[in-house]
Amino acid sequence: MQLESLELIRESSFDWARFHAYRVFDESLQRFIIGRKSYVTTHPQQLDLEAAFKEIRSCFSEGFDDSSANFEEKVRSQFEVASEESKIVFANVEFLWAMPMGNISPRTKRGYAKRWFTDESEVVTGERYFFGSPHTIANPGLWYLMNKYWELIALLRVLNLVASDEEVVDIASAKKRIAELSYAAIYEGAAKEGHFAVTKVCGVHSALLHLSAPDKFESIISENHKQQIAKVFEHVISDRPEIKCREQKIRLIRERLYDDYGDEGDPDRKHRWFFYLSRLKPLWVGKSAASLKIASIDDEVRREQAALDYSEVEGGKEATIAYRVYRSAKLVTEAKKRDDFTCQACEFTFRKQIVHVHHLDPLSERQSPKQTTLDDLVTLCPNCHYLAHFWLRKSNRFKKIEELLQKLRSIYS
Ligand SMILES: [Zn+2]
Ligand SMILES: [Zn+2]
């Protein structure tokens, strides 16, 4: 694990606490984990968390069957003989599982806590505790609900370890530990042994990672979504091969894409749910492995053309950092003229339009800005251009114009 990547420094001035989920997360850590008192119920007593986690382990974790039988029925029978204290602790854990999720209604969230307690006044009330979007952090798929047993085990594991850690003395140290444990569970599988062992991928780890350090970790809880985003936009950060941590990759991708995709008029989108913008989501969501690659090359080609259109003469605006290229629109036009507005591979031409200009080594300038010359550019039709990027990903030899054109021509002969 790259510890530096977990340093919980504030890197933006974004005010997360404006949204209830972040405030409630901090408050419940302070009250429940540090102060050992119930957050979601009104019971005033000091809680023996060690003893409660132990009892929950034996009645819930060790005695649970992971079948599709009704969760409510199962959990009620499991806690039938459990102490009130264990029920209070479980209610707080279950609250933390549901609290940040937008598609579990506030009423349902309160309903979980009310399960154990018949007196209305025993459970806190109000939007301060039970809320929906925009105060939540994500809308997980049905899998989050279907997988509730494993998600709760994963959460119990993290909270149990944090509560028994002597170095956890305040909100900051609690968050740091939570982030470390969640990160290790996702990337090192370090949750498969010991008490509350988890054998499934759990969204709650990503939720905890984000809540602990929202500036560092995106509000994406789906493992699948993280995979797709990292894959489809990998070309956006291909000049930074030293970054190994996927969480860091996704954050850098977001920063770079922001220049191009903006926030659709909602400035909060820069930090929250950026990848779910209506302009961005279709590029990556629900893609099969094969179409992920197509989407990725598509975006790369589109991005290259946008950068090539950038004109030093007009406005002097710098090309976006996502595809920083230092060349003028004038040079692009010169390349097209030189090639007579004709694809140099298949000879496609149409009214001096449609054709693209491809940079033979698109990455070279990103590593060390150098002046592009006409020799670096070649006119290609959109089809050949797409294929050029396809082959370029397979081998660097297609940076040579002869090799590239020969390969492209071989497709048509
Ligand atoms: Zn062509
Ligand atoms: Zn290109």
From TrEMBL:
One of its GO terms (molecular function) is endonuclease activity. It comes from the Bacteria. Residues 330-386 form the HNH nuclease domain. It holds the Pfam family HNH. SMART domains: HNHc. This is HNH nuclease domain-containing protein. It comes from SAR86 cluster bacterium. Transmembrane segments: none annotated.
